[in-house]
Amino acid sequence: MKTHTLGFPRIGAQRELKFALERHWRGESQPEVLPQMAQELRTRHWLLQRHAGLDFATTGDFSLYDTMLDHALMFGAVPQRFGFTPGRIGLAEYFALARGNAAQGAMEMTKWFDTNYHFLVPELSPDQDFSLHAQGLLDAVREVENRSFTPKAVLIGPLTFLWLSKIHGVPEGSDEAEAKLALLPRLLPIYQQLLAALEARAVAWVQIDEPVLALDLPPAWVDALPHVYRTLAPAHLRILLATYFESIEAHLPTLATLPIHGLHLDLVRAPHQAAAALRLWPRDKVLSAGVIDGRNIWRADLRAVLVQLKPLHARWGQRLWLAPSCSLLHCPVDLAPETRLDPQVRRWLAFSVQKLAELGTLKRALQDGEAAEETALAESDAAQRSRRSSPQVQQPAVRARVSALQAADAERQHAYAERRVQQRARLKLPAFPTTTIGSFPQTNEIRVARARFKRGELREALYREQMQEAIGQAVREQEALGLDVLVHGEAERNDMVEYFGEQLSGYAFTDNGWVQSYGSRCVKPPVLFGDVARPVPMTVEWTRYAQGLTKRWMKGMLTGPVTMLQWSFVRDDLPREQVALQLALALRDEVNDLEAAGIAVIQIDEPAFREGLPLRRADWATYLEWAARAFRISASGVRDDTQIHTHMCYSEFNDILPSIAAMDADVITIETSRSQMELLRGFGDFAYPNEIGPGVYDIHSPRVPDANEMLALLRKAREVIPDDRLWVNPDCGLKTRGWEETRGALRHMVEAARALRTEL
Ligand code: GLN
Ligand code: ZN
How far is the centre of ligand 2, averaged over its atoms, from the C-alpha of 730 (Å)? Predict the structure, then answer.
């Protein structure tokens, strides 16, 4: 029996790679420093795998920026617009592709399946030439062998590589997916050469990742599967085909007939695949069972996993391999330094290093009997017991409240058409009202004050004063600009999820639980471990203070239940829907309290609503149904004349418009400026019933567009949105901008709105 991991996080336990990258980019380190750091991290991670008793050192999972980019370069697919020569990509060229240079914008970035990891999208053309440049991978293999580890090389499979690429220059009217698939005959020979080169280095196993098998693929792609792996079948090298993130059960009969030597299944996301494998996967091939959650930070219930593994062990014996469900890229590195975490909660967690150790325990327990691993298993049992019985995890009052939810709790008192009459009477806003999305520039002063307060260096009273000063400034600026609905500016918030998580029960925070998001950028998702409740109001004081400074309407600002869920490490002992409902109820209390404090407009941000969509279409309806319901529960405790806003900052809505409408926010603000209002067409065709604020300028850029530009966009918006339902606002919050450009852009925005009013 063997143990292995599909991949290991490369950023380093102390984010060493991040800091080395950033020093390199700033020109603060000698050119050789970054590659040295990379080598050191690779070696350290292989040593961790060896110390945990893993049978392979996974090779090829490391990258200075992104492995999809590395594969594109390895196949000679350098985006033509950069003018670089395939095979001659030094660090300067590499980072130009990843981050852009003076002449060219960076390669596009997009999320890796339903994770928060972003990969760079290869840019291909219909007559794409591929060529092999595998020195980097072969060098890594040599590094492993020099240390007498056993390498298992990892590759992204040809179907996944092509599916996730973009193809440019496809003739109008022809199918993009087809055009990409048509590149297969050009690409497969390169894979063959690569496998031959690995074979020549005496690599015994290569793991080929085909996570696209977890998606709804067009029939032509499914049909290509046997051909691809029959073509690749090398003479000596063994192929482990790795799948993850969803069930691939439908492909099992085909896979069983292919000349591959092993198959990895994600038995955490899709445990029922085990039964299918028992029926369909040959016993003389390797089955790699992904039984340790690679996407989350919970310690495994080892006893339960052993029960799951026993029938597999009985069938595959030595050919059963144990692994995390997917690459550990999506997990933080090491729990050991998290000494400030509540020891109780800490005991329930496992980061990557701990997960490797869990594999070892499982292997020995299967091979030598559970008695041999009694200490580790008993510790796992005790952790499970403590988690199940903790009063922090199970709050009967929270459970009771969720069970008592009625249909009416998810409905406003009256339909939008009636609410709007009351809101107009109360708010008395001009036509095309102007507002912003919530945050104002987070000046250095604000950041320093927050950090000092957090470290206990700034007394609470002084901190309050400084925040109130920032709020006051934001209000004065907005009044001077002539905005209609104001915001307090979010100076007191470090992060839109963490800020609320810190005030809710059921949340914990790590010091170093970083996960790579893209390149050198990492996120540190809070840990949602227990029932969620709101002990005391979270934003009411700040909002009331802000409202007290102005006669205009002050908009309350909250993060919605779906986004709170989506951007946290969420407990695995309760369905996500239930967790969303708990969050919704906590937020509902906040919304009601804001209303009681005289706040007439309340925005509940849901920027992560769309990214919660399951990978398979068949599962969309269920998710959308509970996600929209959770939002409505948070928003529906208020009177008809209180106006609920929501905000989403992306521009792919068309396929989920009915669910956006089902959220029933009185106003939704969305990102549109970069798509020149194109996306509004969907809202128009669908006849979206409530009010919309299409972003009229891109906040991601310091550029200050002039009023005419925004006016032109607004005129376009008027073509699809009725005049009395159109708002005027930027694309997103302004916290990353400076005051200079913010002032300039908003002045032009207000000017544009005023000009539009004269056209009525
Ligand atoms: N209210 C938040 C802000 O303005 C919204 C951020 C977001 O959409 N991601 O910063
Ligand atoms: Zn946004």
Answer: 9
**Tens-digit pLDDT profile for residues 496-506:** 999 999 999 99
Is pLDDT of 610 > 90? yes
Mean pLDDT of the chain: 96
* Neighbour count for residue 400 (Cβ, 10 Å): 9
Torsion of CA 730, 735, 740, 745, to 10 degrees: 0
**Is the pLDDT assigned to residue 235 strictly greater than 90?**
no
206 alpha carbon – ligand 1 mean position (Å) = 43
**Centre of ligand 2 from the C-alpha of residue 710, in Å:** 18
Identify the sign of the CA torsion 623, 625, 626, 629. Answer: positive
- Per-residue pLDDT at 252: 98
CA distance 84 to 77: 10
Atom 10 of ligand 1: nearest residue by CA position = 733
Q: Residue 733 CA: which ligand 1 atom is closest? A: 4
Q: Whose CA is nearest to atom 5 of ligand 1?
A: 733
CA distance 352 to 372: 24
**CB of 737 sitting under 6 A from ligand 1:** no
Give catalytic residues, as residue numbers.
700
Contacts of 127 (CB under 8 A, 6+ apart): none
622-629 long-range CB contacts below 8 Å, 24 or more apart? 624/656, 624/659, 624/662, 625/659, 626/577, 626/580, 626/581, 627/562, 627/580, 627/659, 628/659, 628/660, 628/662, 628/663, 629/410, 629/581
Residue 649 pLDDT level (bands cut at 50, 70, 90): confident
Quote the DSSP letter at residue 26.
T
Residue 438 CB less than 6 A away from ligand 1: yes
Q: For residue 413, what pLDDT is reported?
A: 98
- Specify the pLDDT at position 172: 87
Ligand 1 in contact with 647 (CB < 6 A)? yes
Say if ligand 1 is within 6 A of residue 669 CB: no
CB 388 within 8 A of CB 333: no
CA of 607 to the centre of ligand 2 (A): 6
732 C-beta closer than 6 A to ligand 1: yes
Among 668, 732, 735, residue to substitute to test ligand 1 (most atoms within 8 Å of Cβ): 732
DSSP-derived secondary structure letter, 603: E
Q: How far is the CA of 212 from the centre of ligand 2 (A)?
A: 29
DSSP 92-147: HHHHHHHH--SSSPPPPEEE-TTSS-EEE--EE-TT-------HHHHHHHHHHHHT
Contact 612, 623 (CB under 8 A): yes
Residue whose entry in the numeric block shows the structure tokens 């496998």 = 195
pLDDT of residue 8: 98
Q: What is the mean pLDDT of residues 311-340?
A: 98
Q: What is the DSSP letter of 435?
A: B
- Predicted TM-score of the model (pTM): 0.96
Minimum CA distance residue for ligand 1 atom 1 = 438
Residue 735 beta carbon below 6 angstroms from any ligand 1 atom: yes
Residue 742: nearest ligand to its CA?
1
pLDDT at 650: 74
ipTM of the complex: 0.99
* Residue 208 phi, psi dihedral angles, 5° rounding: -110, 120
